[in-house]
Structure formats: structure tokens, C-alpha cells
Amino acid sequence: MGAVWKYGDSVDxxxxxxxxxxxxxxxxxxxxxAMEDLDETFASGVRPGDVVVAGANFGCGSSREHAPIALxxxxxxxxxxxxxxxxxxxxxINTGLAIVTCPEAVxxxxxxxxxxxxxxxGQVRNLTKNQTFEAEALPDFIMDIVRRGxxxxxxxxxxGADA
Amino acid sequence: xxxxxxxxILAAHAGRQEVRPGEIVMxxxxxxxxxxxxxxxxxxxxxxxxxPSVWDRSKIALVASHFVPAKDIASAKLMTxxxxxxxxxxxxxxxxxxxxxxxxILLPEEALTLPGDIVIGADSHSCTYGALGxxxxxxxxxxxxxxxxxxxxxxxxxxxxxxxxxxxxxAWVIGKDLILSVIAAIGDDGARYMAMEHTGDTIAHLSMDSxxxxxxxxxxxxxxxxxxxxxxxxxDYVRERQAATGRSRDFPVLSSDPDADYAGxxxxxxxxxxxxxxxxxxxxxxxxxGEVERVKVDQVFIGSCTNARxxxxxxxxxxxxxxxxxPHVRVMVIPATQRxxxxxxxxxxxxxxxxxxxxxxxxxxxxxxGAHMGVLGxxxxxxxxxNRNYVGRMGDPSAQVYLANPAVAAATxxxxxxxxxxxxxxxxxxxxxxxxxxx
Lengths: 163, 439
Ligand code: SF4
Fold this sequence. Notes:
The structure holds two protein chains of two kinds. By secondary structure, chain A is an alpha/beta fold. Chain A has helices spanning 13-16, 27-31, 42-45, 66-73, 86-95, 103-108, 140-148, 151-162; strands spanning 2-6, 51-54, 78-81, 99-101, 114-118, 123-126, 131-134. Chain A has one domain (2-158): Aconitase, domain 4, CATH 3.20.19. Chain A has a seven-stranded mixed beta sheet with strand order 4-3-2-1-5-6-7. By secondary structure, chain B is of the alpha/beta class. Chain B has two domains: 5-267, Aconitase, domain 3 (2-Layer Sandwich); 275-430, Aconitase, domain 3. The mean pLDDT of chain B is 97. In chain B, helix 2 crosses helix 5 (141-150), helix 6 runs parallel beside helix 7 (208-216) and helix 9 (310-320) packs across helix 11 (349-356). At the A-B interface, helix 5 and helix 8 of A face helix 2, helix 3 and helix 5 of B. Bound molecules: iron/sulfur cluster. Iron/sulfur cluster (SF4) is lined by residues 65-66, 102, 104, 123, 125, 304-305, 365, 368-369, 386-387 of chain B.
């Protein structure tokens, strides 16, 4: 559970983490610069458990995995968006950043609201407004990667099974 | 059942007769690519997967492109890591700085991406290769690590959106203007998760260079891939590149069935297009150049995987002629690959750029991603031939970037303000002849 940081449509990976910081993949280091070109207050103000809520096409642009890693590094518990750009979607699943697609929750939620997200059930609860939303369900195949904690563990399980 | 070219390629690589949009399939990969930014993390992910060796050392390409020549110690370390991985796994296609260039222009030149292939690249513009009639898409580093370990990838079969271009391109209009007008029409996520299939009688008029620009910017419309069914020009190009590089893998020439299902159709009347300019700070803010404010510019960048092929440099040089650049404009020209650089050099283009007052440098992504070789300062205005004008993309977040084709960029460099190329050079350059007149 945490407070909501709310943003608009097409938040691209160049503002989630600018290219000038791509010389590291260190989660804590990247987190210091997360969203800085869009919202200077985010990296210093975000608290573990907070939730990023944004509009359509979240994470569009470059394939940099540094983007979900930077957000994960800030300790946010989830990103709720109306829709995600596909490479960001894959990268978030692969690196274990919790994401849910739920346009209704985005529309009804304001900055600063207290929100709780349960990725396993796909529930988004807005405690401030006392409303609950059902996110789009992920296909079983993708839930399997999520449950294993990311793609590395998933590949390990497959390679192990083949051996 | 009738299928699109994309569905046919995915089915063939999943060991299936047919696939349907929305299905998740495991596909065999023909080529996996990573660059100096994404390869180190891919190598780390690969190491954590506990597989002793890569699935096929001849099907992986590692390309130094983004922060090269190393711009600082941290980027030198990325290169060191990539090179160490290439040596450890005896990667056959490892391109050091000075031997390659920007991956999306390099790999087709090197005949490493062929019609019918599945190409997975750890870079979002990996959609570019689709101009050859293959399925190609971008992923992150962990996905790429998994491909290097297993030779496979899970893919959701995308819906296809059909773009139908009609008419011959008017003077000054090239692939960049076509794709900018598509993105303006459908929006930044108008093709989200979809394959963009470029069709119509206009395609026969387009050079391979222009076609590669069409598929390059699929991602700027949210697309998963861009594809153009191969025609005679594609096959001739691929054979020529195979002969030049001594690589001779067979390839199928596929196309969509006439009654295949599409998620949507967009018609573009090319005959009435003008050169397009995307205003800051989204590619979808593209309008005809005549409607754009004559803004004074601080920098012009002619480079990137979108427009730094030989056709682009020829067009820019044609516009410049014997003129010099406006004294108040900084001009950066970065040919995309060693081969483009050498060709431009032989044709005297590099000298012309240099004499006009440009900084001409070695192949690299450079200024395109605000990495080095032309980072923008606060409030600076830039006209760029690249594909993204997002906030902060080329440097300071307050910089303003306009995207345009190389003719507009070159004319702007001469005039000092954003203008139609005909204002600087009344006669347009000669363009590729339509296919029916070739050979
Ligand atoms: S030129 Fe620009 S868009 Fe193309 S690969 Fe390099 S950084 Fe990416």
C-alpha cells in the first residue's frame, strides 16, 4: 500500500531514465534519477510501497531494461496504467516489476490517493475513495513467469526440465 | 486459413501450420542482436541462467554502436564487458567500433538478416529489418539473454494493421515523410502490439533505403514490428549483399494472402504529400513542412538508424550544393556505418559536408540519444533526421527537437531556420526509379 504518483499518457523510457544514466545497471543508482526529466520531486519523494499511476502507452520508446529496473529500485509496489508499451511490458515481467493494466482505476485515481495493488488477483484498491477495480488478467503463460520471479528463473526451470 | 506474412513467418518458426493473433507461441530465432548498452546486461542475465554456452555462436550479432568510441570510462567498461563476452563465447558476428556502425543499418548490409527470418534485437528499433520481409522486433536485455541461452523466444502473435500507400512520391518526399504521416494519422500508440504491414503501389517506387526508414519507425507508433513483403528489388538487394559478404543462406519470399485478416487499414495518399516535420516533443506531432513555424535552429543533426544511409546523405549533399551552412547553426553529420561512410567518401559527399561547415564523424548513434557528439544544451532548437524527439532525448529536457527528412534538415542548416528544401535548392534530387522501370 502506498501513495499515488500520477502521470499522463505516453510516459516514455527517455524520461523514466534518461540515456545519460545508462552506463550503469545498478538498481539503487538508477533509482536516484527515475523520472527526473518529467518530475524532479519523484526520486527524492517516493516511498517504498508507493504506486505509479499513468495513462496509455506507459514505457514507450527505447528497449532499455534500465527503465523498469529504475522504477523497481525506487521501491514502488506497482505501476498501474491504462496500457503499456510492449517492450516495457516484457521487461517489467522479466525483471519482476509489478505492473497492472486497468484504465478504470487510472481514471478514478488522483495523485496522493492511498492505493493497494494485488498483482496475483489483479485487484486495485483505492482506499482513499473506497473503490475496488479488477485489472486485465494476464495470460497463464505470463503469470507463470511472474510467479517464478522473472525470466531468469523461468528459463532455469525450462533448461532444467529439458536436461 | 488465410494468413498475413507475419503469421506465416511466426508459424514456420513455431513448427505450426498456422497461428492466430493473440496466441502465445514459442519461436525459433534466426538472429539475436545486442549493442553496447544492452549486451552487458544480456550477458549478465545469460550468466544467471546457468547455461554453459550460447545456443549458436553464428546466430548472435554484438554491435558497438551507442556510446562508441567510448565517451567516458563507464561506457568503456560496457564495451569491455561486451567484448569479453564475445571472446568467451567465440561470437562470430562481433562488430567493434571502426568495423561496423549502427546495428539496424549494418545487419542488412552484412546479409545477416534475410527475408522470412525471425530477428530479435535488444534495441527497440530492431523492427527495422522487417523491410526485408522478415519478422523482427525489439526486446530488453533479459529476453535477449534467454534467446542466447535457448535459441527461442515466446511471442504473442500480433494483429496486423495494414498501411496502404498510393501514388508516386512527389519531389522531396521519401520514406521518412510517409512514416511520419502514418504516425500523425494513427498516433503514438496507434499500432500498439501490432505488426505494421506496409503495402500499396507506392512501395515499388521506394528504394531499399527508404523502405528501411518505413519499418524503422514502427516503434514510434507503438508497433511490435514493421514488414514489407519482398519484391524484386528486395531480392536483388539481398542477393547483392550476400555476394558482397560471401554469406549465402537460403531464404523464402513470402507475402500475405489476399483474404488475410487485418485489425485495421490506413490509407495514405502519397501523391499529395509534402515533406513532414514532427514538432517537439512527439513523433505524432508531424505536419507538412509548409505549416511549421520558421523557427531559428541551433543545431542540425543528420544521422541515426532512420536517415543516415547513402540515399539520405546524397539528398542532403544535393541540397547543400556549394553553399555554406548558416554561421549560427552547428551541423553534425554522422554516416550510419563504415560502408556508408566509405561510399559517401568516394562520392565526395563527406568533403562537401565538411567544407560547408559540418562536423563529420565516425559511425555511431551519438547525438540521436543525447549520448555524445552533439548533446543539446538548455533551450536549444534542433532539426534532426532521427526518429525520436521526446523530452530530454537529445540532451537537456528544455531543448526542442524537430524531426525531418535529410533534405529539410540540410536546407535548414543552410538557411538557419526551418524551411522547405525547395527554398534552398529549387531542383529536387533524382530518386529511385519505380520497380517496373528497373532492369
Ligand atoms: S541511431 Fe538512435 S534510434 Fe537508432 S539505434 Fe542508435 S540510438 Fe537507437
